[in-house]
Write a structure and sequence with these properties.
The protein is an alpha/beta fold. Helix content is about 40%, strand content about 10%.
């Protein structure tokens, strides 16, 4: 077992199983909601045999990729599959009195309240949407599948409702099976944050290529009774947060003498 497997794969599997074993001993536990990932049901996309024309949903099945893994991202994808399989195997073997739900988000975009500086936007999935706005040119395409973080939180909380069927997986992805185009973020900020574009908060000029992948979240929208916020709303959320912090930092740099950059 290499370092990636020991630090990423095994802890994820063991974490879920420990939770399930502990809950198994407590009759009052009625439901467990796990944060999984769309990666749990989408095959690893390297190699010539990947079928990009297929449509994947929460009930798709993907076999875990065996290690060793070339990089943390490949290991992450394998981790989500092995953890899901281990979770389902536990439920099948032990038949617990509680039900299990797995929530499967795609790339999560939107205001992250834990981010308190513009520098922090250069990590995490928000950077995929922010790259075109910040002048970052990324030659590598990302799958055009996104979801607002508020919607992901909403599904997690609502999944505890006993009216939501247990023993289910729920995909979280917006904009139908066609998904999003990452560079569309440029037009969103031009229309909604023109001053931030004019004064250089958003220098634009970046490029984030999109790779088309079809993901179907219609079951989730039907069961939970709402429609996922689209990519435009996601960009407005994260871009608005960036503007807010940029203005705050500029004000502080000026000694607090009022905002020197207007949003």
């Amino acid at each position: 077992m290499n370092r990636v497997e020991s630090e990423l794969v095994r802890p994820s599997i063991e974490g879920n199983i420990c939770v399930l074993r502990a809950a198994y001993k407590v009759p009052s536990v009625k439901r467990i909601v796990f944060t999984s990932s769309a990666s749990a049901v989408i095959p690893w996309f390297t190699g010539p045999n990947f079928d990009s024309k297929s449509t994947f949903d929460s009930d798709s099945v993907a076999s875990p990729e065996p290690g060793p893994y070339k990089d943390p991202y490949e290991a992450y994808n394998a981790t989500k599959k092995t953890t899901l399989h281990a979770t389902l195997a536990f439920v099948e073997s032990y038949r617990p009195s509680f039900s299990v739900i797995n929530i499967m988000p795609v790339f999560v975009i939107g205001k992250n309240e834990l981010v308190t500086s513009t520098k922090a936007f250069y990590t995490g999935t928000n950077l995929i949407a922010m790259a075109p706005l910040l002048g970052i040119v990324n030659p590598d395409p990302f799958m055009g599948i996104s979801v607002h973080n508020d919607d992901v939180a909403r599904v997690h909380v609502a999944a505890l409702d006993p009216r939501i069927p247990g023993g289910s997986n729920f995909m979280c992805s917006s904009d139908g099976i066609e998904g999003c185009k990452w560079n569309d973020a440029i037009e969103v900020v031009k229309q909604n944050f023109p001053d931030a574009v004019a004064n250089g908060i958003f220098p634009l000029g970046g490029n984030q290529p999109t790779w088309s992948l079809k993901v179907d979240s219609s079951k989730t929208e039907e069961v939970f009774g709402f429609k996922f916020a689209n990519y435009e709303q996601q960009v407005k959320s994260v871009a608005g947060h960036y503007v807010e912090l940029a203005v705050k930092e500029a004000t502080m740099a000026a000694g607090g003498a009022g905002a020197v950059i207007s949003a």
